[in-house]
Structures are given as C-alpha cells and as structure tokens.
Write a structure and sequence with these properties.
Among the domains are: 49 residues, no CATH class; 97 residues, Immunoglobulin-like (Sandwich), CATH 2.60.40. The termini are far apart. It contains 6 helices and 8 strands. It is elongated.
C-alpha cells in the first residue's frame, strides 16, 4: 500500500493560443484565387454544315410523304374545278346552245352570281342570203331578206341595219331594226337553217334625195 499513501501528481496541459482570425481581404483574395484557378468551360463544338445532297434528299422525302401528296392532290382538284367553272361561266351561252341538257345546271351556276344564260351569239355564222327592196306604191316599199345560220347551234336573232344610198354611194337614210321589231322573226335562228323576213317600209325620198341603192347588214347590239 505504498501506492495508496502517495497520490498521483496532477497533470497540467499547457494552454494553446487560439488561431488568429484571417482578415476579410485575405478571404476575398483566396476566393478569387480559387475562382481564377478553375479552368474555363470548353466551348460546345459547332455542328458541321449539312451537305447539299442531304438537304435535297430531305426535301424530296418531305414532298413524297402521303399527307403532303394528299394535300397537293386536293389543291390540284380544287383548282381544276375552279378553272372549269370559270370557263363554263364564260362560255355558258355556247354550252347551252350546243348541249341544251346543260342549261338547267348553267342556270343554277349563274343564279348566285347574277348572270343569265342567253342564246349564243356568233355574228360571223349569220349570212344574209338574199335581199330585195321593192317599191309598191308611192312611198310604200317592201324589203325582203333571208338570213342563214351556218353554225351547228341555234343563234340569237341579230339586229338589222338598212341604209339607203344615192348615186354617189353616200348614205341618205339609215334605219336600225332591233330583233323584236322584225315581223315574224323568231328569237332563235335554227342551226344550219334559213329564215325569211319581210318588212313594210314608208320611205320619204324624192327628187331632192334620189335613192339609187341600199346596203343591209346584221349585228348584235
């Protein structure tokens, strides 16, 4: 028990000094140094330009897709119908004359557009086959003419212009007869047929205005 008689001596630990604080300026410099030391990010590589033949192949593939081809076909059909309708409107009179069965459809087409289907007009197909100006009594004359339609379709009756001339071929009198003023004239000249028309006239001509001849022509007013 000698150990019990002498207690162990106390151990003393020398105190250590606390770490000195780092100034704020030093902290900022250290942070800046760490940031400066970080390597810059590498730039993303630029995509290589696409070859021209690849772009052309992509375009061809786009226009050949079923959806695009269906849209193009629909547009082509729509444009064709519009062109056909425009042509039918422009030639409606000729179509109705050549194909009378189309007239109801042409009338329906014209109804919302405010147009009408009228008899066809082709003055080049109407020929004055014969004429005769005969004095009956005093100032009473008769003028007879035959109109011939050479077209393969019925044509509208034209107007008639009758001019009286003197010995110098100068016109001394002129009169225009509209289709409704021609007695007995039909509204339509039948296809490849002739129509005779007779007029009764009262012509006030005398020695002051001697009549030596006449001219007749037809036209559409």
């Amino acid at each position: 028990a000698p150990d019990a008689a002498f207690p162990e001596p106390e151990r003393f630990v020398e105190p250590t000094a606390p770490p000195e604080p780092i100034p704020l300026a030093a902290n900022a410099a250290a942070a800046a140094a760490s940031v400066a030391l970080d390597p810059p990010p590498e730039p993303e590589p630029e995509p290589e330009p696409e070859p021209g033949f690849v772009r052309q192949a992509r375009r061809r593939a786009f226009w050949r897709t079923p959806a695009v081809r269906a849209v193009l076909l629909s547009l082509a059909l729509l444009l064709s119908l519009l062109l056909a309708g425009q042509w039918a409107l422009h030639e409606r009179d000729q179509l109705a004359a050549l194909h009378p069965e189309l007239k109801p459809w042409l009338d329906r087409l014209c109804e919302p557009l405010g147009c009408q289907v009228e008899p066809a007009r082709r003055i080049d197909a109407i020929v004055i086959d014969s004429t005769a100006l005969v004095r009956r009594q005093g100032n009473a004359y008769s003028f007879d003419l035959v109109l011939k339609n050479t077209a393969p379709m019925a044509l509208a009756m034209p107007a008639l212009e009758l001019s009286l001339t003197n010995t110098s071929e100068d016109v001394i009198a002129r009169r225009v007869f509209l289709p409704q003023e021609l007695p007995g004239a039909p509204a339509l000249l039948p296809a490849q047929s002739s129509v005779a028309i007779s007029l009764r006239l009262s012509l006030a001509v005398g020695d002051a205005l001697p009549m030596a001849g006449y001219r007749a022509l037809v036209f559409y007013p």
